[in-house]
Amino acid sequence: MQNDNLVEIEQLAFGYGARPILKNINLTAKRGQVVAIMGSSGCGKTTLLRLIGGQLKPGQGVVRVAGEAVGELDQAGLYRLRRKMGMLFQFGALFTDMSVFDNVAFQLREHTDLPEDAIRDLVLMKLHAVGLRGAAQLMPAELSGGMARRVALARAIALDPMLVLYDEPFAGLDPISLGVTGNLIRRLTDTLGLTSIVVTHDIHESLKIVDYIYFISDGVIVAEGTADEMSASGLPFVHQFVHGEADGPVPFHYPAPPYADDLRLGGQGA
Amino acid sequence: MLKQAIEKLGNRTIQGVWRMGFAMRFFVTILLHSGTAFRRFGLTTRELYFSGVLSLIIILVSGLFVGMVLGLQGYETLQTYGAEESLGILVALSLVRELGPVVAALLFASRAGSAITAEIGLMKATEQLSAMEMMAIDPVARVVAPRFWAGVISMPLLAALFSAMGIFGGYLVGVKLIGVDEGAFWSQMQNAVDFERDILNGVIKSVVFGVAITAIALFEGYDAPPTAEGVSGATTRTVVTSSLVVLALDFVLTAFMFRGIG
Fold first, then answer.
1. A28 φ, ψ to 5°?
2. To 10 degrees, what angle do helices A145-156 and A175-192 make?
3. Which end of chain A, N or C, is surrounded by fewer C-beta atoms within 10 Å?
4. CA dihedral sign of residues B63, B66, B69, B73
């Protein structure tokens, strides 16, 4: 059944042991969109990505990708689905014992019977798309952080997936690489007809390229809307996040006993 | 106080049993996913180079020195009984039965086992294994199983080379340096060493050690917490655990193989 939503998440809850990470998440990503999932560090964004990729199974609720409930697939089913997914890891996760070329060619060699000539052409096309055709013979250790991220992006789209997941694609990049990566995500999504889900806390870069944003705090979605709606939003959490204020709905202090008690000031204060 | 100590002890015991269970399950998973390691033997050949060929130097040099020491010490002892011509037997049997498999295994654990753990642990810490999973490629089949079989294949070969070098070292010291009769050295050795009882049993030992060391190294790497301390701790545990396991297994195997045999 073909419908507009490539990814649908309904009433999803997940926790590690007794510690709940996500509670009641509802989220959809339409085909062809770039969707951002935002929130402060450690709020469960990456966990959500792993649930979509099937590396974790939901505690409650359902995650559907292209109509299939990811958590209920067996390994063969999951692997079949993952061939149509690409994932960009936080620091690229390139295979350090292989050259850039071999990294991008990896999936083509593992999953297809294409002759080496055809693989070479495909790999050079993917590398050209991220501007690194000339770096094909370098090893990952010789790349800058931004270049490694772009190689990983070329690798993620090697099999022309329908869905690409990005885990913090902007983390630790200089402003130029940041802009390059952001533009690539937008352009590849449009030209290849992908759907992109970007987990990030880089609000300014994201507002430029995404279609729809979800804000997560304390395991629930606290706000959602288009980039313009979010920029103009008066919601306290979104305002704090967009403007980078230290204190607000997300407190500066980690929960602690009263300061005066901790300093053993006795009856004097608190 | 006492209650807490008992609780802690019990907790650690339970954790240990859990871990052993995980390790056994991991071992079975490796065996079940070994198809790729043989279908695409190129993957295994590459690992044979890293754990086998690169271990050659340490194995050959150690074998030579162990054999030379055996030659010296053996001659000293045998001389007091006027049996110095049996030096060949002493050197060959102690190497083929015990020292070859055991010392080669200890060296293999510290040379190749630690490298395997560190490599797999870092691949995990840098999310390379996760990335592979997300590409619908099973890391156990693609990364772990070829390393396992490479270790199992190279261990007996390394042990054999160790013994050969050791016998050569014993020959150098005993015959060339001290002057034991060359004919007696070789012919007594040939008469006393039995293929099935001595050589084959030594090979069986080294195969068992190869399985144990590589499986422990791979499990520790795969199970390592994805941090710097995690990987370093796992590497240490690989060397310590596999050395102890090798020595314990050696006792058990020897007890079965040589019980009651003169």
1. -135, 150
2. 10
3. N
4. negative
Per-residue pLDDT tens, chain B, 262 aa: give them: 889 999 999 999 999 999 999 999 999 999 999 988 899 899 999 999 999 999 999 999 999 999 999 999 999 999 999 888 899 999 999 999 999 999 999 999 999 999 999 999 999 999 899 999 889 899 999 999 999 999 999 999 999 999 999 999 999 999 999 989 999 999 999 999 998 889 999 999 999 999 999 999 999 999 999 899 999 999 999 999 999 999 999 999 999 888 755 4
Domain A5-244 grouped into CATH 1.10.150.130 = no
Task: Identify residue B34 by its one-letter amino acid code.
Answer: S
- What lies within 8 Å, CB to CB, of A92 at 6+ separation is A140, A145, A148, A149, A151, A152
Write out chain A residues lying below 8 Å of B123, CB-based: 96
Q: Does B261 touch chain A if contact means CB atoms closer than 8 Å?
A: no
pTM to 2 decimals?
0.85
The residue extents of the domains of chain A are: 5-244
**Predicted complex ipTM:** 0.80
Mutate to test the interface with B, among A78, A79, A102 (most CBs of B within 10 A): A79
Q: Which contiguous run of DSSP H or E holds residue A222?
A: strand A220-226
